[in-house]
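Hey, sorry to bother you again with one of my protein questions. A protein chain has come my way and I'm curious about its shape. It would help a lot if you went through both lines with me. I owe you a coffee for this, so here goes:
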Amino acid sequence: MGEKELVITTLASEEYIEGDEAGNHQTMTFWKCNLIFKNNPISPIDNQSLGNEEPDQPNAPSESVSTEAEALVNIKRWIDKEKPKFEAPTKDLESVSLREGTEGREVRIGKQLPPNSRAKLIELLKEYANVFAWSYHDMPRLDREIVEHKLPLLAGSTPVRQQLRRMRPEVALKIKEKVEKQWNAGFLAVANYLQRVGNIVPVPKKDGKVRMCVDYRDLNRASPKYNFLLPHIDVLVDNTAQHAFFSFMDEFLGYNQIMMLPEDQEKMTFITLWGTFCYKVMSFGLKNAGATYQRAMVTLFHDMMHKEVEVYMDDMIAKSKTLEQHIEDLRKLFLRLCKYKLWLNPTKCTFGVKTSKLLGFVVNEDGIEVDLDKVKAIREIPVPKSELEVRGFLGRINFISRFISQLTDTCSPIFKLLRKKQ
């Protein structure tokens, strides 16, 4: 029996007029649609007509605009944390095709490579072109025996079912496309027992598209902290610097490559105009997702870390003293990726570069340099006018403290501003 494919039919609305004894009338609008599962015999559950009423809360008041704004701010904070931690200068990069005659199947490599070494690196990338994922369907996901994300809850925590928030029609249709893609890729399941329900938080992208996130704030409050430590930034930067060649890699939808514990899936239920779904894979925005991912990476690459590679959640760095050794280190890394079916995002990878920004610093063969963009940002900070702004300024200064001589003495007048009765 084939896998089910989800198709959400075009939205439609129905209106009716409701009146009360006092003669007041109100027009009520209900949105309805159909979920159609293809490639399988249709059951009574498969084609559902779903309205926009909140389950078990038909008379609950709407959430305030401030609640939606808070959710968006929270999600953007998560997105900022998950951005690639590296950035090679674009002027030092060139794109190479991995498959002849296939448009768009390209990765970026350093321009400064000698012709012979450049040819060897391109040959290696083409040999292991299958470590790159180009769509949802290219992801087989990690074996459950290696890692599986669990969602234990604090004793006494109360389930929260958020109400369906309003959404502009053009945004709702973009979310509809995302739901269809994720369902057809096997990321989602229909949720039937709605103890915990979160809302979709659409985050606009620069290209006009929308990133579909879920408001998991209530679920995160009910989840205990998983204390698997992430690498210290200073240690990661120090271990990466003073190498001649670097390759920076980002896993393709890294969190979604980890499966959820089946009995915890419905805790991640989210509501849409087209029904309620839950994730079968680890979702972005969960409290302990980063720790689970780091634990998985340590499991897979523990014998290579601090030697050939460094790992920070879904970002990987290969570093080598010579270009010949770098190609061999990449081959070893690609073999490991193939073994565990962990695929990379080709649009966020760069190979064979001699310098790059990393976590706010610049690393190269000479060592570590301060990122001039950070210096510029500090110089352009307005004069602090509150305690919060003073602390923010000191935080930025502290980030580059290793490059500033006698920082404590220099900043002592500012520290006095934070003392009581000053």
Remarks:
- The longest strand covers residues 25-38.
- The chain is about 30% helix and 25% strand.
- The chain has three domains: 1-40+371-421, 86-142+229-256+288-368, 169-228+260-279.
- Residues 6-63 have pLDDT under 50 and may be disordered.
